[in-house]
Amino acid sequence: MFETASTTVAEKVFWAKLAYTGAVSTPLFYFLFILRFTGKDKFITIRNTILLSTVPIITLILAFTNENHQLIWSGFSPIYAGTNMMEFYHGPGFWIGYMCYNYLLLSLGTILLFQFIINHTKTFFSQGAVILISGLFPWSASVVYLSGLNPVAGLDIVPVSMVLSGIIMAYAILYFRFL
């Protein structure tokens, strides 16, 4: 919201950097949550958590220091007068440290969740299905954003999809007695 409301490139980049804190940590936390939900707690150790956090931490550092190397964003479009939007052109640090790693965690989490859903009773099946559906919203939004199929150039719809995921999870908590 703050990035979209900003009127200068510097302000938009500042808010994008700040947003990276959530962008690099959310897939990691989602994966850890899936490990816990599916009963794979033995893999959630301090050592494994530190190892899994290494790439997101490096990516976050690269985002905050981007002007020194352009590894996360290689450039920016001018701000479009009609929409106040700006496109971020992504560098190799984004594709490797952000996209590849996040999609790896999301893929592994989805596989674990599918296995769990297939092997459990109706109650856990429903809960697992809700988690799967809510987890697919941000993933799908990310694909739309990166593929250029966005209805508004430069608009990142992933935060909006996170709200939809939250609504689905709230529904699960209230009606399926999830958690």
What can you see in these coordinates?
- The chain is mainly alpha-helical.
- The protein has six helices and two strands.
- The protein has a two-stranded antiparallel ribbon.
- The two termini are 30 Å apart.
- The mean pLDDT is 88.
**Which stretches of 5+ consecutive residues score pLDDT under 50?**
none
Number of strand elements: 2
**What is the N-to-C order of secondary-structure elements (H for helix, E for strand)?**
HHHEEHHH
The span between the termini is 30 Å
**Overall 3D form:** globular
* Cα-atom radius of gyration: 18 Å
Give the key terms.
179 residues, mainly alpha, 2 strands
Detail the topology: elements first, then pairings.
Elements: H1 2-5, H2 9-37, H3 46-64, E1 73-76, E2 88-90, H4 92-118, H5 122-147, H6 158-175
Antiparallel strand pairs: 1-2
Helix pairs in contact: 2-3, 2-4, 3-4, 4-5, 5-6
